[in-house]
Each structure stands twice: as C-alpha cells, then as structure tokens.
C-alpha cells in the first residue's frame, strides 16, 4: 500500500509460519498478520499488533535463542515469523514494511 508502506508478502499461507529471506543488515522491519476463516462469506480478521525486528549491523553467528532473525551464509539476513494458529483459519496474510 503506497500510503501506509505495508506490502503483502503472501496472502496464501496455509500454516502460521513464514521465513522472510534477504533482509538487509542494520535495518528495522515490522510485521503484522491476519487470518481468513472458513466459509463462503468469510472476511479477513483485523491485523495483529505490529512487531518489529532489527537486523544486526553485519554477519552474526546463529544462536538457538535468536528466533526473530538470523544471518544466511551469503551475508544477508532472514526472519522466521510465527504466530498462534487460528482453529478456523484456512489462510493467513502476512505483511511487512521497511522502517528505515
């Protein structure tokens, strides 16, 4: 959305997890998610509260405690995003926007 800066990463996720690759070093990213319940007249839920991750300024060693973002072998960063499953959701939409 040009007005808000939010960009849909996918609106066809069938599980409550997604990995966002190729994040830039020393950059803040904000994510939010919403679910689509089953049924012919189903409408998307409201978005979750946004949460922010900030990538490290350079390559880092992966750590089992580091669950929001990590360094890839090529020097880029990736974030694995997960959220609680909604029992009646058949799809999820995850959006992001670049903060700086």
Strand order of the largest sheet: 1-7-3-4
**Backbone structural class:** mainly beta
User: Into which percent range does the helicity of residues fall?
Assistant: under 10%
**Could you give a short account of the major beta sheet?**
4 strands, antiparallel
Q: What general form does the structure show?
A: elongated
Number of strands: 7
Mean pLDDT across every amino acid position: 76
Uncertain segments are 60-67
Order of helices and strands: EEEEEEE
Q: Based on the structure, what is the oligomeric state of the protein chains? A: single chain
What distance separates the N and C termini? 17 Å
List the helices and strands and how they pair.
Blueprint: E1 7-13, E2 17-23, E3 28-37, E4 51-54, E5 70-71, E6 77-82, E7 89-98
Please characterize this protein's 3D structure.
The protein is mainly β. 0% of the residues lie in helices and 46% in strands. The protein is built from no helices and 7 strands. The strands form 2 sheets. Strands 1-7-3-4 form a 4-stranded antiparallel sheet, with no helix packed on it. The chain is elongated and about 45 Å long. The chain starts with 6 loop residues before the first strand and ends with a strand. Mean pLDDT is 76; it is low at 60-67.
